Amino acid sequence: MSAEPTTPARLVHAVELARAAAVEDATADLGRASAENAVGEHLEAVVEDPGTLTHYFAAEHGGYRGWRWSVTVASGPEGEPDEGPITVCEVVLLPGPDAVVAPAWVPWHERIRPGDLGVGDLLPAPDDDERLVPGYLGPDDGSLGSEIVVEVGLGRTKVLSRAGRDAAADRWYDGPHGPGADMAKAAPGSCGTCGFYLSLAGSMGGAFGVCGNEYAPADGAVVAVGFGCGAHSDVAAPAASPVAVAELVYDDGVDLEPVPSPS
User: How many angstroms separate the CA atoms of 51 and 6, rounded?
Assistant: First the structure.
């Protein structure tokens, strides 16, 4: 036991009283017979203060591997720990050092990932979202002026900030429709030279656009200028051979003999 010498000996030795309290607490959920087996061996006694001590017992019921029953007992009024009856103050199940516990809770806005949003789901942006700025500040890309007039009270209340725009650009450039994709490396040409490429408006137009080819893998998606695929508008069908294949086939495995002319 880890109890200090100053702790009243009767609290240290009140193991059976503490065990009975743990069994009583477990009985409500497990029944008397199961509760007896659920409270295992006495593990240690820890001093809380001169008149209070906690006994720990192994939890033996299923689903609580490594957990411990914690039973806190006290004796006598403050200043007189050696007097008065021993009282059970608290009984609770606590995880031990090797207990199986749930992982630390992570706020939903840190857990959510692209593609998690489903039909009917709502995903409000945080009030301090650095990706957005009030609409009256404009798109923050140097092209202010008439756009501010549109946004002030007449258009969107929030627009992308510089940080939000830069984050989107990095995500698109490094994504599956960027110049580093395997599809782009094997393409005969880039999207920037394709007739199906529709440039984005504003400051993003120099680097990104939307694919307008229904047969392309990126149809309707944002693509980088350096992306590309086999459906490029300049791809030409390979020239066919001018000689029919059938005319090139012959059989040299048959011996031919001249046919005698009729006499």
Answer: 9
* Tens digits of pLDDT across the chain (263 residues): 455 445 678 899 999 999 999 999 988 888 887 888 899 999 999 999 888 999 999 998 888 888 999 999 998 655 555 566 889 999 999 998 888 787 888 887 778 887 777 777 777 777 788 888 887 665 555 454 545 545 455 567 888 888 999 999 999 999 999 999 999 999 999 999 999 999 998 889 999 999 999 999 999 999 999 999 999 999 887 766 655 555 555 566 666 566 676 66
Give Dmax (Cα) for the chain. 147
DSSP letter (8 states) at residue 219: B
> How far, in Å, CA of 35 to CA of 49, rounded?
29
Contact 210, 220 (CB under 8 A): yes
**pTM of the prediction?**
0.51
Query: Which residue has tokens 């409270």?
Result: 39
CA dist 13 and 186 (Å) reads 78
Q: Is 26 exposed, middle or buried (0-12, 13-18, 19+ CB in 10 A)?
A: buried
Rounded distance, CA 92 to CA 117, Å? 39
